[in-house]
Amino acid sequence: MNDDINTTDRTGDLCWLLKDGFCAEERQAGTRGARRSKTAASVVELPVFIARQLCVSLERPPSAKGWIHEIKFDGYRIQMRVLGGDVTLKTRNRLDWTAKYSAIARTGTRLPDAIIDGEICALDESGAPDFAALQEALSEGKTDALVYFAFDLLVEDDEDLRPLPLTKRKERLQQLLADAGDDTRLRFVEHFETGGEAVLRSACRLSLEGIGSSDRSGSLESRSRSGRDGSAGSDVASGETAGFPDRLVSVPSACPDGFHFRRTFAEHP
Fold this sequence. Notes:
Elements: H1 11-19, H2 24-29, E1 42-43, E2 49-52, E3 56-57, E4 67-72, E5 76-83, E6 86-91, H3 102-108, E7 114-121, H4 131-140, E8 147-156, E9 159-160, H5 166-179, E10 186-188, H6 196-205, E11 210-215, E12 222-224, E13 235-238, E14 248-250
Parallel strand pairs: 2-13, 3-14, 8-10
Antiparallel strand pairs: 1-9, 4-11, 5-6, 5-7, 7-8, 8-9, 11-14, 12-13
């Protein structure tokens, strides 16, 4: 995962992640269909929804080893649930927006039973996320060109992957998306394992919203909540109820001298 690239200037690498990073190497190498190895994941009935903790803000991105850094996409955080070929897309507040993103939902029918965490974005001519274009697409009902950037796999088939380290979950996610075909509406979010400050500066130069940083070995504890919402499966909370954040987000307010950090997703449905 991009841990050997130059940490001094990553602008080109960030462009690659935006435009070409969706399992391109795996498709070219013909590895689609390779069976992922079973891990020490637990068996679980596919939950209806898994609540996630909001990101927390820090003054600087983490510089210690053990952190991975990803582009912070300027869109709507959406949880994709696939069960028997039926796809549901829900916002962080559990609003069902499947009908709003019908093209992405149709693409997701190719996936096995799973719960995926990601962000839906509109891209401008350069391939960078454009939130104003996303809002316009939603208001006009023209959402076929939107892209779902997937950054975490919580459940696959009957396996609860949350006890696994984040990097293991992302390996499983990358293979799952590679197996699903070539539709670029579903894209895997690559990450950098070193140089958080360098990644943030590159994101700033590309006028991106910022970066997200996560503990590469972090697992997601979970517990069931009482009640159901009328669908099969339990309603589960992850991170939020356990009292720790999923991710740290760095958002630059000026480039390259100063950085301003904020709690994200609070304005999203």
